[in-house]
Amino acid sequence: MKDQTQADTDLVSVIIPLFNEADNVAPLCAALTTALEGLDRPGEVIFVDDGSTDNTAALLAEAAKDHDTFKVISFKRNVGQTPAMMAGIDHAKGSVIVPMDGDLQNDPADIGVLLDKLDEGYGVVSGWRKDRQDSYWSRVVPSQIANALISWVSGVPLKDYGCTLKAYRREVLEGFRLYGEMHRFVPLYAHWQGAKITELPVRHRPRECGESKYGMTRVFKVLLDLLVVKFLTQYDAKPIYIFGMVGFGFFGISFIAGVWALYLKWFENTSFIETPLPLLFTLGFITGVMCILMGLLAEVLMRVYYESQGKRQYTVRELINVDENV
């Protein structure tokens, strides 16, 4: 990503990943043109065609010819929304990043509302689809469950992590890469780096053209990515903590199983071969040892990673009378 010093301090970069959204390109471009004209600052739109098999890329190329502020990145194949989002961020020039969906369910007119809120001193303004226009049982309910789980695990209580429409200051996006389905977790990264976050209701419109690319399988991917995010943001520098806690948990299971087996042997006259407790004791102890050893190995790997690449375990917000080259 570009440093803040390289970014246009007034420019707003709108990033829109698209996959097979040919029917939505024309109305989307028209709505974006109107929205950008209504802003009190310059803006650019970065369309990322995620390997569409229809004529989405061709239509975007035509739109870019007529609008200098429209930029197009086309992938050779479909790789997913998160890599597309990452590509847009990598090529964005603005000091403010605004991702949104390309299916017109997000209203480009809300961009100005998010920017006004961002100007109040926030690092992230997250959109909340308060009146969501999707199928209740197949889309809304799973989303509510996922949002509650993410909020509980992360400690960042947002009502709608799945809403793509958000506004970020560029500096809160520095220092990490996005993988899997992790674009929805960017507010967590920002929060853990000290950014001030708020949530704002935005309009949500029913899909009129094209087909939704979301399915129930994405719920499981999100849950797995949540575990990765939790680990990378809170235990990446000290992986022995998470491995150690799991290891001691197995040691506890092993200890309980061993004591119980001895109790049955001494007081109930139950032979060790008549109960699975000795096996549980052995497996628990071995697994605990393996977890501790994996934690120590992870500690060594993290130190090699930080030292070989010259990375630091802290991020600096501001320097006053301090040499930046230290």
Write the layout of secondary structure elements.
Elements: E1 8-18, H1 22-37, E2 43-49, H2 56-66, E3 70-74, H3 81-91, E4 94-99, H4 111-118, E5 124-128, H5 136-154, E6 166-169, H6 186-192, E7 197-201, H7 217-234, H8 239-267, H9 277-308
Parallel strand pairs: 1-2, 1-4, 2-3, 5-7
Antiparallel strand pairs: 4-6, 5-6
Helix pairs in contact: 1-2, 5-7, 8-9
In quaternary terms, these chains amount to single chain
Q: Report the count of strand segments.
A: 7
Give the CATH topology of the largest domain.
Spore Coat Polysaccharide Biosynthesis Protein SpsA, Chain A
Sheet with the most strands? Answer: 7 strands, mixed
What name goes with the CATH superfamily of the largest domain? Spore Coat Polysaccharide Biosynthesis Protein SpsA, Chain A
User: How many helical elements?
Assistant: 9
Strand content: 5-15%
Residue-averaged pLDDT: 84
Number of structural units classed as domains: 2
Label the structural class: alpha/beta
Q: Which bin fits the share of residues in helices? A: 40-55%
CATH classification class of the largest domain: Alpha Beta
Enumerate the strands of the largest sheet in spatial order, edge to edge or round the barrel. 3-2-1-4-6-5-7
**Rg of Cα set:** 25 Å
Topology as a string of helices (H) and strands (E): EHEHEHEHEHEHEHHH
N- to C-terminal distance: 21 Å
